[in-house]
């Protein structure tokens, strides 16, 4: 996934 | 990672530790809703499906494992542990939480960022988490008096998503194409559900009195 689309939060 | 997000994660971790402390120290789960704990276990299992496929950071992976393991451990304690399970308020914990699961899943099928397996389950976990506290709040009102640790547990649990909202506002202004509308709106609903609890929690803290919710 492109960076801004990844769920980088919990 | 910004300070609001980190503070939110730490607050969430504290809430889990307070609950584990309560169960371990008092060997009792009175006042705790098993249904809410089961919903949280489902939230983490469906939200962290990317645990094996998408590495973000050590911190991210470790925290995901902690939340999954602790939520399953709490459900196990309340269902299986011979001493703890006896103190479960089975006849007070009667919220029909299956409706929350069904409604969240249907909504996730309709409203998601991308109609894919992981994305639908991610949206499902976001919607479910927003309402997962309902069985616990209903149990609280039915059981009247709340022991300190349970009160603190619910307070930190509610506070963590409020900090996440600050994190989303911060990221919205600081990052160009940041948009987490699904998480943000669900987070606002989730935090709003704690509004009256926060009020009574504040009153009990101000008057140095026991936490009392009106029946």
UniProtKB/TrEMBL annotation, chain B:
One of its GO terms (cellular component) is endoplasmic reticulum membrane. The keyword Transmembrane helix applies. The chain crosses the membrane at residues 55-77, 98-115, 121-140, 152-173, 179-202. InterPro entries: ER_ret_rcpt. GO terms for biological process: protein retention in ER lumen; protein transport; vesicle-mediated transport. Keywords: Endoplasmic reticulum, ER-Golgi transport, Membrane, Protein transport, Receptor, Transmembrane, Transmembrane helix, Transport. One of its GO terms (molecular function) is ER retention sequence binding. It is found in: Endoplasmic reticulum membrane. Pfam families: ER_lumen_recept. Its main location: endoplasmic reticulum. It is a multi-pass membrane protein. The keyword Manganese does not apply. PANTHER family: ER LUMEN PROTEIN RETAINING RECEPTOR. This is ER lumen protein-retaining receptor. It comes from Cucurbita argyrosperma subsp. sororia. The lineage of its organism: Eukaryota, Viridiplantae, Streptophyta, Embryophyta, Tracheophyta.
């Amino acid at each position: 996934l492109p960076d801004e689309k990844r769920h980088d939060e919990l | 990672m910004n300070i609001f997000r980190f503070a939110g994660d730490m607050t969430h971790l504290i809430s889990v530790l307070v609950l584990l402390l309560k169960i371990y120290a008092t060997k009792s789960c009175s006042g705790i809703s098993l249904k809410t704990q089961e919903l949280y276990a489902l939230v983490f299992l469906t939200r962290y499906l990317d645990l094996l496929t998408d590495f973000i950071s050590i911190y991210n992976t470790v925290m995901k494992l902690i939340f999954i393991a602790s939520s399953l451990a709490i459900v196990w304690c309340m269902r299986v542990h011979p001493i703890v399970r006896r103190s479960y308020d089975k006849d007070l914990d009667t919220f029909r939480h299956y409706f929350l699961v069904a409604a969240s899943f249907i909504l996730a099928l309709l409203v998601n960022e991308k109609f894919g397996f992981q994305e639908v389950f991610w949206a499902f976990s976001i919607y479910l988490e927003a309402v997962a506290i309902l069985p616990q709040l209903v149990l609280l009102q039915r059981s009247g008096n709340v022991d300190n640790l349970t009160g603190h547990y619910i307070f930190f649990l509610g506070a963590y998503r409020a900090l996440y909202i600050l994190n989303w506002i911060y990221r919205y202004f600081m990052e160009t194409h940041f948009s987490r509308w699904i998480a943000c709106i669900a987070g606002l609903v989730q935090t709003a559900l704690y509004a009256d609890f926060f009020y009574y929690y504040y009153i009990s803290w101000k008057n140095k009195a026991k936490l009392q919710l009106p029946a």
